Amino acid sequence: MLKNKPSAILFDLDGTVADTALDLSATLNYILKQNGRDEIENNLIRNMVGQGAKALILKGFSHTGSAPSEDQLDILLDQYLEYYLSHISDKTEIFPGTLELLDILKSQNINIAICTNKNIELTHTLLEDLKIKHYFNAITCGDSFEFKKPDPRHLYETCKLMSADPANAIMVGDSVNDIKAGNSAKMLTIGVTFGYTETPVSQLGPDIIIDHFDQFIHAVNNYGE
Question: CA-CA distance, 126 to 88, in Å (whole number)?
């Protein structure tokens, strides 16, 4: 149990709550192959994740040749979304310890949110497929507002939906967008080491680093001691 109950805990989705890398990789490689490009190794695609589908497509095509124009990118995005929606949870799994942690937090009536740059349709579909949507008091996505992580307003607005004080909230994520947003919002930031960031999470400046969610409660309870 958490000794000092936070107003809310905000979780990133891809690379934090759910290991989505294989399905994201399969989708990007499908689009690349359909458009005459070489496929990319899964371990490289893992490091491209975190800024939404359009950014992933742009990185993938730039990696395999010239970047698409804005018009081409819109067409590719439609292709990507159609394929990914049909395969969104083929190989995706919840990271170990996630369900146990969510159960503990819910038992303390702590507000829990998903704060992701994934779009609304994909996010809700995935959470429903994984059967964890009911845990979250708020779900905000890359197209929920006119801004998204690393903009701290994404976190502020998520807290607002739960009537939670951002100054007493926690942001949990795996990438620079998560940690930068959390730090800018003056939240306690927790970086997980099992996500998709190319830069080691230790170099991103989180307040706490954990290797597994079974370390979460102890790490937060002992922070600052």
Answer: 6
Token code pair at residue 42: 């899964």
Catalytic annotation present for 78: no
Residue with token string 């690349």: 32
Spot the catalytic one: 12, 14, 19, 23: 12
pLDDT, tens digit (0-9, with 9 covering 90-100), for 166-223? 999 999 999 999 999 999 999 999 999 999 888 899 999 999 999 999 999 999 999 9
pLDDT-flagged residues of the chain (< 50): none
Tokens read off for 188: 């306690």
Residues 6+ apart with CB under 8 A from 137: 8, 111, 112, 113, 161, 162
The token duo for 115 is: 């704060």
Joined tokens for residue 120: 């609304």
Domains with residue ranges and CATH for the chain: 8-19+93-221 (3.40.50.1000), 21-86 (1.10.150.240)
